[in-house]
Amino acid sequence: MLKAGWHRVFFTCVLLGVGAALAASQPKSRYRDPDTERKIDSLISLMTIEEKLGQLSQHTGNRDAETGKVALTAQQRELIEGGHTGSFLGGLGLEVSREIQNIAVNKSRLGIPVIFGHDIIHGYRTIFPIPLAEAGSFDPEAVELAARIAAREATAMGLHWTFAPMVDIARDPRWGRIAEGSGEDPYLGSVMASARVRGFQGKDYSDPTTLVACAKHFVAYGAAEAGRDYNVADISERTLREVYLPPFKAAVDEGVGTLMSAFNEIGGIPASAHRGTLTDILRTEWGFKGFVVSDWTSVLELLEHGIAATPAEAALKALTAGVEMEMVSDLYRKELPLLVRNGTLPENVLNEAVRRVLRVKFAVGLFEDRFRNDDEQRHKKEILLPDHVASARAIAGRSIVLLKNQSDLLPLKKDVKTIAVIGPLADSRHEPLGPWHAEGRSQDVVSLLEGIRKAVSSKTKVLFSRGCDSTFVGTSGFAEALRVAGQADVVVLVVGERLEMSGEAASRSDIGLPGVQLDLVKQIHAVGKPVVLVLMNGRPLTIPWEAEHVPAILETWFLGIQSGNAIADVLFGDVNPAARLPVSFPRNVGQIPIHYDHRNTGRPPGDSKYTSKYLDVPNSPLFPFGHGLSYTTFEYENLKVTGTKIKRGEPIEVSVTVKNTGRRDGDEVVQLYIRDVVGSVTRPVKQLKGFERVFIPAGMSKTVKFKLTGDALSFYDINMKNTIEPGMFKVFVGGSSVDGLATEFEVVN
Ligand code: NOJ
Question: How many A from CA of 567 to the centre of ligand 1?
Fold first, then answer.
């Protein structure tokens, strides 16, 4: 069995190896170098208004619908030569990027290099689990490593900049983009945001194996009403500050180079023209020094939102609110020269925007090596390296959540006589790539069927039947699937979503298993054989029937290229699962939005009719945030806090002893929650404030210590001032948001 402790050693070694180049170069302050600032100023003084606006304009290559190849048009070549573009996005390929850079550097008047960006979300060619799955590992080191490897591969392909991490908190699983983030919790989301920024950017992003990161989508995109993508978010300032802003703040504190403005509006103001968030909070409060890029055509969309009557007005509103670079819609370049000339847009505002873009280009090292990352050899050498693939397998294994395991059905024996692998996703080499899989290819993916075939003994018979195809319609394959199930000792039933059912523009109003799959599950279950349900999906699903009747359920999300091996590792016990849900699973869609850190209300659910509850379903989720089982068991004891009275602002130490009471070694995700009992405003019933994934050998105990600093106890009070209020606090420590030990302490003045 691969011990969890082994993974830690492995990750550390790989991180050290991948970071070797980093160690050689001294980390330097990214933006405060006065010499660079002088160079930027003198460059700006040479630029025409058109060249300045060019730096603020991002374009994309033209993809041939038939060949899939990108090529430049004559018009685009002219644009680059004229210095009218600052950036290109998309998977252009080395040849096209080289052509673009060649024109920009050698033919444009000032030779300012172009910065190349692309969506490197969970891997470049070595595809890792989708971000939601990785967040469930509760392992920031693993998440950092995945981002580090993605950066190493993507930079070998000429890229400088990734539109990631996506740090939107999402509490509505109907919203397809929940797959791209870290789930419902601002604390977990912040830890993962920092880890990903560290992974992409390294210590110094002038290192040619690092990418500039982009925290997106600023802000409250995940609060889309009714979970419908691009829909409005109407939230209070408190919710904005408590829930949606923290992961962005964490990314900024980690030194993220760029942010992307969102598509949604917040209380009537589109995020891409929202001065309050883009300037007042991001720059004035947080001191952000990088630049903001709009989302795809989100500047033009200010017209549809109805806050601009003309394209010129849309461009003016976005730029003056704090969107420095416009993605694709090209209004800055076309509309703003006139407004600068007639004084509507002050030239110093334009200069400041250009300064921010150039600052990032300097920090990337583009002025020192204008063809940075254009290296055929690196491309050949650094994609899909064996240690990348091994990390993908290990991280996928660390992201699998064991939701249910009645009578210890799992792990299965490798020498089981006959195993039936059934389901439309069982042999898929495409769906495990998940949404936004960059250069990920099916040919690199290990399907679950392949993973199982490799894992079982030579004597085991593996039977396979799809049941239905991946459109999930039609029951004509059921008979064969039932026949196969009837011959087996155990059935592994693999169902879920297609990859394009989550991600952008992929909201669903019904989040049960799509199509005929629930019928398939019911009929296979009725055969009477032990069934292990393996779910592949990009969001929480409503699976009440499945949870009640099927004895064992694994949530595998979309795990990337090593999906089949990683799931087989867990199915047969080579890896003991320990991941947790980064988001609650509702019982039905009517419970949405549902999250563990809700308020108590004046009428918490009770026996009386007149309490806050439903007539037809409990308030609790089907599976709570933080839930996940193991093949071993853990007990918590000895929960201690530094003292019963703590002086306001002083750090607090919480410790707990966790014992592995089962017969297998395993990891436990120890979670610490607090509740501020009485405040000047209401506080959530629980808030995650710390976690640690620890490896504990069978029969052994470990004492886990948490240090709570002022930040953990503070909140925005009745005057929206961030403060710690004296009074009682409860502390809960356990293996999920609903289990564990509790104690309390008082904060005094
Ligand atoms: C639109 C998406 O919302 C954003 O996340 C992505 O980075 C851009 N398109 C560029 O592909």
Answer: 30
Give the residue carrying structure tokens 């393996």. Answer: 534
Report the C-alpha gap between 631 and 315 in whole angstroms. Answer: 57
Among 59, 260, 329, 502, which is best to mutate for testing ligand 1, by the most ligand atoms less than 8 A from CB?
260
Strands (E), 345-479: 401-405, 418-422, 461-465
d(CA 628, CA 644): 31
Distance (angstroms) between ligand 1 centre and the Cα of 296 equals 6
- Round to whole Å and give the CA distance between 690 and 652: 12
163 lines ligand 1 (CB under 6 A): yes
Q: Which of 122, 212, 327 to mutate to test the pocket of ligand 1 (most atoms within 8 A of CB)?
A: 327
DSSP 3-state percent helix, strand, coil across the chain (nearest 5): 35, 20, 45
Strands 634-641 and 652-660: antiparallel
Percent of the chain with pLDDT over 70: 96
For the Cβ of 472 lying below 6 angstroms from any atom of ligand 1, the answer is no
What mean pLDDT value characterizes the chain? Answer: 95
Whether residue 162 is predicted with pLDDT greater than 90 in this model: the reply is yes
Task: Identify whether 253 is a catalytic site residue.
Answer: no
pLDDT tens digits, 45-78: 999 999 999 999 999 988 888 888 888 999 999 9
Please list the residues that pair with 645 across neighbouring strands: 746
- Residue 166 CA: nearest ligand 1 atom is 5
Q: Which two tokens stand for residue 538?
A: 């990009």
Q: DSSP string covering 632-696, please?
A: S-EEEEEEEES-SEEETT--EEEEEEEEE-SSS-EEEEEEEEEEE-S-SS---S-EEEEEEEEEE
The structure tokens listed for 188 are: 């977990």
| Beta pairing partners, 672 | 690, 733
Closest by CA to 225, choosing from 240, 235, 216, is 235
Cβ of 180 closer than 6 Å to ligand 1, yes or no, is no
More confident residue, 103 or 377: 103
Residue 38 CA to ligand 1 centre (angstroms): 33
Identify any residues that bridge with 215 across adjacent strands, giving them in sequence order: 259
Three-class SS of residue 591? helix
Helices (H), 423-489: 448-455, 478-487
Mean pLDDT for 494-505 is 98
pTM of the model: 0.96
Q: In what order do the strands lie in the sheet with 57-60?
A: 161-162, 115-118, 87-89, 57-60, 326-327
| Nearest CA, atom 7, ligand 1 | 163
CA distance 258 to 200: 12
Query: Which pLDDT tens digit goes with each residue over 313-369?
Result: 999 999 999 999 999 999 999 999 999 999 999 999 999 999 999 999 999 999 998
Catalytic residue selected from 139, 185, 207, 295: 295
